Design the sequence.
């Protein structure tokens, strides 16, 4: 069913090569505001300021409501030229066919959207106003109103109209934290890549220089869910510049978070650490689907497919607006699965853009039919699946049920660990002939505490627990490619 969007979709007149996506570098531009003042992007960024553009149309009620709240004016008063001087905030009217009359008012001029207005946009504004639709078009916006945040490193971020506190956090914490005077490297983000069933994962780190000193070398540790290792980075990064470091083939020990941390001493340890999960989720063989539909239920369908692409469970043909669905499914075997959430119009559950409410979709790993072990997948309904209206699209999530990385129950049953709980020592009894066995002890966060080798043929091995604090631990053993995990408790008397 065709949906008519009440939010203006920009007509893009610039060559597609010049259009930007989130995370890309902004090209320079110079424009004049309605008062004739010349505004240049790069001169603002090079002075250390973040530029925030509010892209809107004069006829749009959502933008008008945001304007009346004076959120951007308050933000500029705190951090603009009359405040701390860290930002420049400009309003950009994006309608291609309007005139100055639409910005001046009066409200609801007769005509089409191109000649309509919500009211007087000028008298209450303390911010520069730019009437230039081609300026907004170069950012390849899917819809307006929208905030375009351009950091001093010239990287572009997009955000919906948000409250003052959220905007402050977005600019000064998430997107464009200010540089410190001195040496301040930061880990901005981490991402992982792992094939389903593999015990190796690639970790990609984004390193950014948030200090005034040029960043030339770093020592970074990787641990937690993977075997501890240290990697070195070298290069030459001036303030606000960033680089990517890929750590290949890290060995996974548990399904906890992977911890990545800068070990080189610097001014600000708060931005030295990031944590990330392997991108293939680990699940039990019991999963729960929660689906809250928007006002277009007939557009939505879903599937759970196994690794041979056979459909095991599916749903669709919904007819009730805002219906809530919750079902638990038993997956038949250990292995890899794909969850698909389809929408025939490509807009997902993003119902608020049509004046309704957003839906959501969640997938959980379950301990039993009523107890959640972990959230695997969450789509909050706040964005479209496709940038093109009425274009069928979907989200896909891959997860691993009854992971091969978890306990080999058959092998573990042949081994014995005692006493449990343990005090000073833990004994490992392995009956029969065997190759050498790698033994590791990790805690519930994945931190490695012990790493030893049990010689081939030795049937009893004792590990010293004196250095461990009281608590819950996991014994990870590996021999000839087979791995086991067994839990035990340390209780020092």
Sequence:
């Amino acid at each position: 069913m065709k949906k008519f969007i009440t939010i203006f979709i920009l007509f893009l007149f610039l060559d597609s090569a010049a259009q930007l996506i989130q995370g890309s570098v902004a090209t320079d531009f110079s424009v004049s505001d309605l008062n004739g003042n010349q505004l240049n992007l790069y001169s603002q960024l090079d002075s250390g300021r973040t530029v925030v553009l509010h892209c809107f149309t004069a006829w749009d009620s959502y933008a008008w409501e945001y304007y009346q709240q004076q959120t951007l004016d308050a933000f500029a008063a705190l951090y603009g030229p009359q405040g701390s001087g860290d930002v420049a905030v400009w309003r950009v009217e994006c309608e291609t066919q309007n005139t100055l009359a639409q910005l001046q008012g009066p409200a609801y001029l007769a005509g089409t959207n191109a000649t309509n207005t919500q009211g007087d946009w000028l008298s209450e504004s303390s911010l520069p106003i730019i009437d230039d639709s081609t300026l907004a078009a170069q950012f390849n916006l899917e819809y307006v109103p929208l905030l375009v945040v351009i950091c001093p490193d010239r990287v572009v971020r997009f955000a919906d109209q948000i409250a003052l506190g959220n905007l402050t956090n977005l600019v000064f914490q998430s997107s464009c934290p200010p540089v410190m005077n001195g040496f301040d490297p930061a880990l901005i983000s981490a991402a992982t890549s792992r094939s389903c069933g593999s015990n190796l994962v690639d970790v990609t780190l984004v390193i950014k220089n948030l200090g005034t000193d040029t960043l030339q070398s770093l020592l970074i540790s990787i641990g937690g869910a993977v075997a501890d290792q240290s990697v070195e980075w070298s290069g030459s990064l001036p303030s606000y510049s960033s680089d990517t470091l890929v750590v290949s083939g890290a060995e996974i020990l548990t399904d906890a978070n992977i911890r990545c941390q800068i070990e080189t001493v610097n001014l600000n340890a708060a931005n030295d650490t990031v944590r990330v999960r392997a991108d293939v989720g680990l699940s039990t063989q019991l999963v729960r689907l929660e689906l809250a539909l928007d006002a277009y239920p007939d557009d939505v369908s879903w599937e759970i497919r196994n690794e041979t692409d056979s459909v095991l469970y599916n749903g669709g043909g919904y007819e009730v607006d805002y219906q809530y669905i919750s079902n638990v499914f038993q997956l038949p075997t250990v292995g890899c699965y794909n969850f698909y959430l389809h929408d025939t119009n490509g807009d997902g559950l993003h119902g608020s853009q049509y004046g309704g409410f957003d839906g959501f979709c969640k997938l959980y790993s379950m301990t039993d039919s009523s107890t959640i072990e972990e959230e695997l997948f969450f789509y909050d309904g706040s964005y479209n699946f496709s940038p093109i209206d009425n274009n069928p699209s979907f989200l896909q999530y891959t997860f691993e049920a009854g992971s091969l990385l978890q306990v080999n129950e058959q092998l573990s049953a042949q081994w014995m660990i005692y006493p449990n709980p343990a005090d000073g020592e833990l004994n490992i009894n392995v009956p029969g002939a065997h190759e050498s066995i790698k033994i590791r002890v990790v805690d519930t966060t994945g931190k490695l505490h012990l790493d030893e080798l049990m010689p081939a043929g030795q049937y009893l091995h004792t590990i010293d627990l004196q250095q461990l604090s009281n608590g819950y631990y996991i014994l990870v053993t590996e021999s000839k490619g087979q791995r086991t995990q067994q839990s035990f408790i340390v209780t020092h008397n």
Q: What stands out?
A: The chain has four domains: 16-175, 185-278, 282-401, 409-490.
